[in-house]
Amino acid sequence: MRLYTKLLRFFLRDLYARTETARSESADNAKTLQETKNQVILFQENSALQIAILQEQNKKFQEKIKNLQLEIKNSDTGHHERTERCEKRLDCLEHYRSETEKRMQSDDMTTLELSHRLELTEQTLQENNLYANALELFNKKTYSQAGEDAIILYACAMLGIPFQECNYLDLGANKPVEMSNTYFFYQQGARGVLLEANPALIPALQNKRSEDIILNQAVTDKSDENIIFNILNLDGLSKIGDISEILEKNPTAKLMQAITIKTITVNDIIKNYFDNKAPVILNLDIEGLELEILKSIDFEIYRPLFLIIEMIPYSKNLSVGIKNQELLNFMQSKNYLEYAFTGINSIFIDKIKYQELISRKEQSHAE
Fold first, then answer.
1. DSSP string covering 214-256, please?
2. pLDDT one-digit tens code per residue, 106-117
3. Cα(271)–Cα(44) distance, rounded to whole angstroms?
4. Which of the 8 DSSP states describes residue 303?
5. 3 state DSSP class of 189
6. How many CB atoms lie within 10 A of CB 262?
7. Global confidence as pTM
8. Pick the residue with more confidence: 132 or 129?
9. Spatial CB neighbours of 166, under 8 Å, sequence gap ≥ 6
10. Is 39 exposed, middle or buried (0-12, 13-18, 19+ CB in 10 A)?
11. Residue 341 and residue 330: Cα distance in Å, rounded?
12. CA 171 to CA 312: how far, in whole Å?
């Protein structure tokens, strides 16, 4: 019995020991299993994160590829467009060159013709003792837009009119020197009246043309009225009246200011500032209102020897074969001859005075 009890205890202790060992191993296995599960979960989470990052990077990469493809396409398109623009520009330049050559060959203002005129002018000045200003005609600088002052210089020399006697009325004077048809004669001692409606241009005129009479008024067919004058940002395009055509033809043109200004007629200017005698030169550049002003002049009383009148409409391009026929017909009806056309302005000469001067010169030579 005692032996049996001992064996039973032994087996019970061994079973307990085995149970504890199994229990311990089970707990360890459970712990290991949990750790493994945790690692798997962490790995899955890291894998998901990495996949998301890779997907985002792949998306960005695809977008870069798409943008690069678009840039390449745009670059090809832009290159094509630039090529087309260059070709068009070359065509325009070639057309301009061709038209310039035509004008140089046929216009009254060709270099050879002008040089010949200047040579004759020098000779005439010396013959008539009009060379007091020591003017070197071949080195003369023209201030006009298209040599208008040189043409009148030649005509005056050929007619025996001293330059200092060529007084002038400049309507729409704009700048005192550049693009001026009267500054050359101011240099030679002649004086006159400069009318400019834009008040911003008056100080420069007063500074450079201090011995001229400067009027900040608008010339119309009636005096002492208040009128709206539109000032544009582009030099020389400011005017009274409608400016829609200018704005339409030139997108860069903008209305800067509309001011109220006093008006005066050509007849009143001559009465008040020229002792009621017409000036030798009347320059008219008032942006489309030339015919209206010309019709207001009493040509029975006031007949300038020369009139310089803009004959083409405003355009950003070279105007060829265009001339205001209505203006031409009107001047002819007033017994004026078109002496020259510069492509921009026509220079008219009083037919009656011209014939008188020619007769006087021929009579003088005969004596």
1. EE--EE-SSSS-EEEEEEESSTT--EES--HHHHHH-TT--EE
2. 444 444 555 455
3. 105
4. -
5. coil
6. 15
7. 0.61
8. 129
9. 152, 156, 185, 188, 190, 280, 281
10. exposed
11. 16
12. 17
Q: Where are the domains of the chain?
A: 1-106, 109-226+233-238+263-366
CATH of 109-226+233-238+263-366, one of 2.130.10.120, 3.20.20.140, 3.90.1720.10, 3.40.50.150: 3.40.50.150
How many CB atoms lie under 10 A from the CB of residue 85? 10
- For 306, the enclosing helix (H) or strand (E) is strand 306-310
Distance CA 327, CA 258 (A): 28
- What phi, psi does 188 have (nearest 5°)? -85, 0
**Residue position matching structure tokens 């050509």:** 266
> How far is residue 77 from each of residues 22, 84, 180, measured CA to CA in Å?
80, 10, 46
pLDDT of residue 277: 95
- For residues 161, 167, 169, 170, the Cα torsion angle rounded to the nearest 10 degrees is 80
The enclosing H or E element of 168 equals strand 168-171
What residue type is assigned to position 220 of the chain?
A: T
Contact in structure between 357 and 159 (CB atoms under 8 Å): yes
Chain segment 71-100, per-residue pLDDT in tens? 766 665 666 666 677 666 656 656 655 555
Phi and psi at residue 272, in whole multiples of 5°?
A: -80, -30
**Higher pLDDT among residues 13 and 75, named by residue:** 13
Q: Please answer whether residues 169 and 283 qualify as being in contact, where contact means their C-beta atoms are separated by less than 8 angstroms.
A: yes
Give the phi and the psi of residue 264 in degrees, each rounded to 5.
-155, 150
Residue type, 139: N
Q: How far is it, in rounded angstroms, from Cα 8 to Cα 88?
A: 116
Dig out the tokens for 279 from the structure.
Answer: 């000036």
Neighbours of 123 (CB within 10 A): 13
Inter-residue contact 154 to 118 (CB < 8 Å):
yes
Q: Determine the Cα–Cα distance for residues 110 and 321; give it in Å rounded to an integer.
A: 17
Instruction: Pull the structure tokens for residue 140.
Output: 């003369």
Q: What is the tens place of the pLDDT at every residue in 230-266?
A: 787 666 677 676 666 666 767 677 777 788 889 999 9
Q: Which residues pair with 349 in a beta bridge?
A: 306, 337
Task: List phi, psi (to 5°) of 224.
Answer: 60, 35
